[in-house]
Amino acid sequence: MTAKMIRWAAAALAAGIALTATIASAEETVEYPLIKPTRQEWSFAGIFGRYDQAQLQRGYQVYKDVCSSCHAMSYVKFRNLADEGGPGFTEDAVKVLAATYAIEAGPNDAGEMFERPRLPSDPFPSPFPNDNAARAANGGALPPDLSLIAKARAVHRGFPWFVFDMFWPYQEQGPDYIASLLTGYQDPPEGVEVPEGTYYNPHFINGVSLRMPPPLDDDLVEYSDGTPQTKEQYATDVSAFLMWAAEPHLDARKELGLKVMLYLIIFAGILYFVKRQVWRGTPH
Amino acid sequence: MSGHSTYVPKTAIGKWFEARLPVVRLLHDTAVSYPTPRNLNALWTFGGILAMMLVVQIVTGIVLAMHYAAESTIAFRSVESIMRDVNWGWLIRYLHANGASMFFIAVYIHIFRGLYYGSYKAPREILWILGVIIYLLMMAAAFMGYVLPWGQMSFWGATVITNFFTALPIVGQPIQTLLIGGFSVDNATLNRFFSLHYLLPFLIAGVVVLHVWALHVVGQNNPLGIDVKSEKDTVPFTPYATSKDVLWIVLFMIFYGWFVFYQPNFLGHPDNYIEANPLSTPAHIVPEWYFLPFYAILRAIDFNIGPIDSKLGGVLAMFGAIAVLAFLPWLDTSKVRSGRFRPIFKVAFWVFGVNALFLGYLGSQATDAIIAGLQAVSWAKLSTFYYFAYFLVILPVLGYIEKPKPLPVSINDAILAKSVPGSAH
Q1: What DSSP assignment string belongs to B194-209?
Q2: Is the pLDDT of residue B142 over 90?
Q3: Could you report the predicted ipTM of this complex, rounded to two decimals?
Q4: In chain B, positions 96-155, which contact chain A (CB-CB < 8 Å)?
Q5: Do A141 and A276 reside in the same domain of the chain?
Q6: Yes or no, beta carbons of A5 and B39 under 8 Å apart
Q7: Is residue A175 part of a domain?
Q8: Amino acid A156: pLDDT
Q9: Which of A20, A25, A169 lies closest to B263 in CB terms?
Q10: Which domain holds residue A46?
Q11: Who among B240, B261, B378 is closest to A279 (CB)?
């Protein structure tokens, strides 16, 4: 009886598929990015992952010398550079660094706005006074604020990868994407038209090309710790820094997580024996 | 609650209280002496898990509300300040955001357990319908909560979903305008959604009380689906059910913690870390994962049916997919509750389960995506057809044509048969 039912159901399903297949058009839509991000080894990946302080410092340097000329990072404050689990600046260094930037404050008692040096509690300065100014200076494109970019970009992993990701966490899609994008610029292949004022990059998530010119090059930023001054190294370091900017409490989260998980696992073990003891002698 | 009270106050203060407000008796009858079938499996612990999740959501939500600002120009920023500057703010927010997902995972397991073991059948119809109402309220609460961070998916999800109402003739437009407080999703929408998002959990808690009350009147179903015949079939709730519930609640917390601590953004959408921008529409607008099956059903109806255009048809199908659950007690004509004794039902049920997951997958794909040579929307039509056929054709018909396996005489008999080797057959 059951087998017969299943056969009928299968036949009905096959007929349905055949019917709709004739209606379905076989048009494929192009999925961006054309090339999926390259997976990197990140110090902050996995259960025991932590940020690499030296890498965050180098990343900040790249951000400051290169990215910050067009991109804002308005959710991050100077004092965060001295926070635990961050680039590990000293409080004094933060004070000095912040004071090199000015901010408009006021009004004062005379009712006038004035400029003062930034304090550790002030956010990173934005390169443009407003979005329209940013667009006007960048050929109509708005350079996004980078505070959250590492969590705001993730390339679809597709089935079945997203299922595996559930059991073995892959939360570094953002930095992988950013590093791939920054090093992914190339000459457009023959026959590909790139709109005026944009640059071909098969790693871009939203089309074949973007308005941002290739920002990195070898020896562009000077590292003091002897790390190789290559385009790839810059890209990796700044991606790590952007992950920290988006998720400044990652270290604390993973540290607390380990304690909580261990506690819960031991507690569950005890409860298992409690349950067994309670139910002993009671067939169920 | 149902007149089998065994509570005897022992202390003087207990007696004094009992004579004035017998609330201790109520708690004792509900959580201690309540007779529970002794053959319940772990799937029966999800009621307790859901109660825990409701409490977690309310507690974390109240704390978040202390720091959140429901104003469209600063809402996004206030959430970021919770993540960055509020002590333990990142933990509270990740607990709340992932808690919503955990709540739905638990409720789906709870619902599918009910579907498999026939927990909706007489005398548990009201109990089941109250459950469907809780589920609906949960969906409304979750949807409105997702709007509050005011990211791109918040904004565009709200725009798409509130737009459903305009499909209704005549009353549709005014309902939508009232719901979003204007002609487009804006600050007024955010404000009323925040207000309602704070209200709904307490409505849920109220209906949960009715749900538990109804449960305690009719008693729990069990994996065999047969009625409790004597005291031999049951054990007292405490310590038997409580020890099991607590174990499974902690196991569920481990699963929950896995997401909160190691992949807090796995279940969310990256676009929601971009502030809402009414001038820029995301490439794909997708709802949260727990709505995806219904989203697939909505989009499956891309054709007109007589006077019903595709938009109204989709909305009716989507709401119908939930409403049909309320009629389930009368659609399933089989007298046997548990799927264990129903060979054909069993197959139809598992196909239904896989089909529901597949609908969820389809909901996450673009309608013109090609899956195994077929467009996603074509698959969605087939899946939607099976979804409704299960409730409207298969379950009503099966009751008449299916020959169930023989039922055990009592829960106690079945347990003894199992625990004494050789006497099982």
Answers
A1: HHHHHHHHHHHHHHHH
A2: yes
A3: 0.93
A4: none
A5: no
A6: no
A7: yes
A8: 85
A9: A169
A10: 33-76+123-248
A11: B240
